Amino acid sequence: xxxxxxxxxxxxxxxxxxxxxxxxxxxxxxxxxxxxxxxxxxxxxxxxxxxxxxxxxxxxxxxxxxxxxxxxxxxxxxxxxxxxxxxxxxxxxxxxxxxxxxxxxxxxxxxxxxxxxxxxxxxxxxxxxxxxxxxxxxxxxxxxxxxxxxxxxxxxxxxxxxxxxxxxxxxxxxxxxxxxxxxxxxxxxxxxxxxxxxxxxxxxxxxxxxxxxxxxxxxxxxxxxxxxxxxxxxxxxxxxxxxxxxxxxxxxxxxxxxxxxxxxxxxxxxxxxxxxxxxxxxxxxxxxxxxxxxxxxxxxxxxxxxxxxxxxxxxxxxxxxxxxxxxxxxxxxxxxxxxxxxxxxxxxxxxxxxxxxxxxxxxxxxxxxxxxxxxxxxxxxxxxxxxxxxxxxxxxxxxxxxxxxxxxxxxxxxxxxxxxxxxxxxxxxxxxxxxxxxxxxxxxxxxxx
Length: 449
Fold this sequence. Notes:
disordered N terminus; 25 strands; six-stranded mixed sheet; eight-stranded antiparallel sheet; alpha+beta; 9 helices
């Protein structure tokens, strides 16, 4: 009998690679992306003409390829990347979705957005400056988000005379740091994005390097999108009750399968209520099917009329997740206002949003040596730290290490809807935080979960 993975190999197999670029200011991220697009023949004629026109207005003799990604006017005027720029391109071997993330420290939080769904992260380093704090920050974010592949692109090798010793020293330092973070695979490539060395074409200036170019690595790195091997998770988005003459008794639960496989006849549990039933029908694209798998959007029909609403999670009874009101997680703080102990927040997990209180901030990560600064009291923009959150209602959380989809959540300001932090449930790459020590105190407004 074939396994689930083998049965759906043809469905999950894909030539799509999602990757993100990151690095410090002026490391050349936008130039690298522009070079990738230009040299892989992925730039439209009118786009190139616009870049050439702007470059000529600036008095530049050659086109500034960074302009292919710096789309905002403020970005072009300042010569920096502010927002996450998404680009889509393809070669004969693979399709790509690229997220070019900002380099400024105040925009590090944008990397969380770009890397949250990435299969690979390209971290750029200026060969003249080596590994700096922002480099370590980006490596930490990539490791925290469980990005399985990291490429260290040592850029501007032309400005250090293409010296192998410079590249080797940077690669050794970064690899040691990223390995301590738990990054499973690190590939170091010496490049010059401006000159095109080792980006798409092999460099004639670094014959001492025998590895792949950036594009060759992107085309060949093994990527698995097989969500069917994970336990099935189905967050309910909408309850369908037509109550029409044609469908007087129809009751369906619509949503996208986050992971795993669901089958007609399978016993399932609805969380957080814990009620059980059996799948009697699966509707996909207007037709009834016997089986469905992630990431399909389907409607489930159950044997029993159970009180189910948006935010509930349907999972096979054999491997349903546990529920908790005490969430211990690592978060990347992305808001301008600090996140302090005692803060009242909303926590959004899949399609469920509930009230919560930040009960404790046990530690904040120190990026220089990966040590934990205990009990900081609050987290500010771009901080990475451990939090303990008490929720008003139980959540069916998986560990982020097991599922990036159902192990992640957002902390939201209930007053204005601002996203405060991106959270990853369970243990992170850093050392374990100690057990909660603060006493649970009732809130005068009733947020005393």
